[in-house]
Amino acid sequence: MSNIINKIMKIPEPVRQGMFFGLNSGVITTTGLIAGIAQTFSNPLYIIISIVSLAISDGFSEAYGLYISKKAEKISDDSINPFYSFVSLLITKALIVLSFLIPFIFSRKLTYFKNLSWPFLWGAFLLFILDYHLSEIRDDNFFHYYIPHIVILFIVMGLSKWFSKMIMKLE
Fold first, then answer.
1. Which end of the chain is more exposed for a tag (fewer CB within 10 A), N or C?
2. What is the pTM of this model?
């Protein structure tokens, strides 16, 4: 396992920042989207379209937002590092968001999405990987990262599900 940690440490800082940001954001935003939209529609195409749209729009939005933020952070920095962060965040976020479509490879049924088992378990697994590696490279306690991530995941999923049900009652 230390071999993987050494490889992560060798990744240039701006690329590593984009990857960690993209993985975190991809999991949280996609589970929230699925928790809300899966409660309202019974057509799997709505979920597929929503997830692909999220991968594109949120991926570019956050990647460019990070790029601009890094430019504003170090005004005299003319390096290509902000661009590396942009690219790594965009690719990571798109791949993570699109990975939530894996169940559709095997079935078009929405059961795993409606009961939120797939989004939660897949999200918790991806966050486990992120937090494990982050705790290893920082030499911190794993649970200092993972427990808040799981709490945030529950809050986002719960609020998204609740609001979607409340809005559907207005119909």
1. C
2. 0.91
Residue environment code for 16-37, b if the CB has 16+ CB neighbours within 10 A, otherwise e = bbbbbbbbbbbbbbbbbbbbbb
Residue 151 host element (H or E): helix 143-170
In the Cβ-directed half-sphere of 139, how many Cα atoms lie within 13 Å? 1
CB 113 within 8 A of CB 103: yes
What digits encode the pLDDT tens for the residues 10-68?
888 999 999 999 999 999 999 999 999 988 877 889 999 999 999 999 999 999 999 99
Q: Distance from CA of residue 56 to its chain's centroid?
A: 13
Residue 140 tokens, joined: 């911190």
Rounded Cα gap, residues 46 and 7, in angstroms: 39
